[in-house]
Design a protein that fits this description.
about 280 residues, four-stranded mixed β-sheet, 9 helices, alpha+beta, five-stranded mixed β-sheet
């Protein structure tokens, strides 16, 4: 007997993500804090010093383990993936290291389901369309730097957004996706900053919609000109054409104000490759 098709699984994943968002009192367009959502769903999230993607442990108090060694945005998507295992009633599962932009070597029903669930949960259809529209962009024509900025606004990686737009939302062609994924992150950072930089970069523009700005020590943060920052967690490195470039210098919480849109938000800086529970 044949199992469900990919289209059927994608629909199940999308509806599942809508159910979770609705349960949590979240709208169907805004970015979300996946760690806060897991806490609300009664699933503990812990960062560990292990070389893997993630691990879901099904027990009385379910737990998700995420590798602190993986890039910061990748941990966000992996957390959504592991939450999918919980939401669809799967057993304990280990997810080994994968290439963010690569398709799985063999089709696995459960893995496709939770991977697609994570995409719709973190990057809902209405939210992605809104994110491009409010910036005056079209996904098929946007530059790599513009894709990078939109990805930052959802807290996910560049390749994660490109892949979801292609295979989840059908907003870009496979040819366009291949072109975008050929470009390395260092090259995109150089395009945005005007100089080469090995450090991770988060771009915050006036359309930023996440409730907080989460980062870790030694990550660069590009903010709009005129941004006001309280505290010493972020240290200014330079003022460039694209904005004010800061580096996350020490763990803790700070506040920043975006004057152009008269909006304030908290910045939460964790230790580099922090090991421990997400709530801390």
């Amino acid at each position: 007997m044949r199992g469900p098709t990919r289209r059927q699984l994608a629909r199940e994943a999308m509806l599942g993500s809508i159910d979770v968002r609705t349960w949590a009192g979240l709208d169907l367009s805004s970015p979300l804090d996946v760690y806060d959502l897991c806490d609300k769903r009664g699933v503990e999230v812990q960062f560990v010093d292990i070389s893997m993607e993630g691990l879901y442990i099904r027990r009385e108090r379910p737990r998700i383990l995420l590798s602190a060694l993986r890039p910061f945005p990748r941990r966000v998507f992996t957390c959504g993936h592991e939450l999918g295992h919980h939401e669809f009633g799967h057993g304990s599962t280990v997810d080994e290291l994968t290439d963010e932009a690569a398709a799985p070597p063999t089709f696995k029903h459960d893995e496709f389901l939770v991977q697609t669930f994570a995409g719709f949960l973190l990057m809902p259809t209405l939210g992605v369309r809104k994110a491009f529209a409010m910036r005056g962009l079209r996904a098929e024509k946007a530059t790599q730097a513009q894709f990078y900025t939109v990805a930052c606004s959802f807290g996910v990686g560049y390749a994660t957004l490109v892949t979801h737009l292609t295979y989840g939302l059908d907003m870009t062609s496979r040819h366009r996706s291949a072109e975008l994924l050929k470009v390395s992150l260092p090259r995109i950072r150089r395009e945005i900053l005007g100089t080469a930089s090995p450090a991770p970069l988060i771009v915050v523009d006036r359309h930023w919609a996440l409730p907080t700005l989460d980062t870790e020590v030694d990550t660069q943060v590009l903010l709009p000109h005129g941004t006001q920052i309280e505290g010493d967690r972020l240290i200014c490195q330079a003022s460039i054409a694209a904005g004010q470039l800061y580096v996350a210098a020490r763990p803790g919480i700070a506040a920043l104000h975006l004057p152009e849109v008269d909006r304030s938000l908290f910045v939460r800086v964790s230790r580099y490759q922090y090991v421990g529970l997400s709530r801390y």
